[in-house]
Amino acid sequence: MSNIVLIGIMGCGKSTVGKALAKALQYQFIDADDYLVDKYQMSIPDMFAISEDYFRDRESACLDDFVSKDHSVIAMGGGVIKRAENHPKLKKIGKVIYLDRPIEDIVNDVDTSGRPLLKDGAEKLYALDKERRALYEAAADVQLINDGSVEDMVAKIKDHWED
Ligand SMILES: Nc1ncnc2c1ncn2[C@@H]1O[C@H](COP(=O)(O)OP(=O)(O)O)[C@@H](O)[C@H]1O
Ligand SMILES: O=C(O)C1=C[C@@H](OP(=O)(O)O)[C@@H](O)[C@H](O)C1
Ligand SMILES: [Mg+2]
Asked: What EC number(s) are associated with this protein in UniProt (predicted)?
């Protein structure tokens, strides 16, 4: 298995840590949200404006595109775990790491623009964490706490990966 798959709630750092980790490992970096925007030539808010299901169908379909990747770090969108049928697909793509960052930290610095589910404010993350925590745990191979710097997190994941 040669890919690292990052999951976790919005703002936990999948995109930021993923990019830095890929650089450190000299792997390709793929952000699933950017991949979708590119593939369908439509922004995430525009997909959600049609419906959340419209976005989820495309998000789920793109997992099949990632199975053939190699030496890649893939940052998923935070809701990819909502569909149970995605869990085995994530594990097939690579080692699934749940970035578990304290919600208080995220609420303090998350950029809500471009995140339709946070249109009424970042506090929504507390409810989403309650709804989804068990799903992240079920979908992950490893759960790592992200309560330091981005560099600390990169080092922690590298340690696990190289073990
Ligand atoms: N330890 C950390 N790990 C990751 N991101 C952090 C950390 N500390 C602060 N941040 C900030 O939190 C935000 C994480 O956002 P992002 O990477 O887009 O998350 P995600 O892709 O999981 O939704 C960024 O603005 C980043 O600069
Ligand atoms: O948690 C979610 O349901 C979502 C997370 C977002 O990605 P990030 O986790 O990178 O913000 C993006 O896929 C979309 O806005 C929906
Ligand atoms: Mg992201």
From this structure: 2.7.1.71
Counting ligand 1 atoms within 8 A of each CB, the residue from 10, 12, 16 with the most, and so the one to mutate, is: 16
Q: Tell me: the pLDDT tens digits for 135-157?
A: 999 999 999 999 999 999 999 99
Nearest 10 degrees: Cα torsion 143, 87, 7, 128: -100
Per-residue pLDDT for 1 more than 90?
no
Q: Indicate the pTM of the whole model.
A: 0.98
Instruction: Indicate if ligand 2 lies below 6 Å from the C-beta of 116.
Output: yes
Beta carbons within 10 angstroms of residue 44's beta carbon: 18
Burial, 48: exposed, middle or buried (Cβ in 10 Å; 0-12, 13-18, 19+)?
A: middle
Supply the CATH classification number for the domain 3-162.
3.40.50.300
What ipTM does this complex have? 0.98
Cβ of 10 less than 6 Å from ligand 1: yes
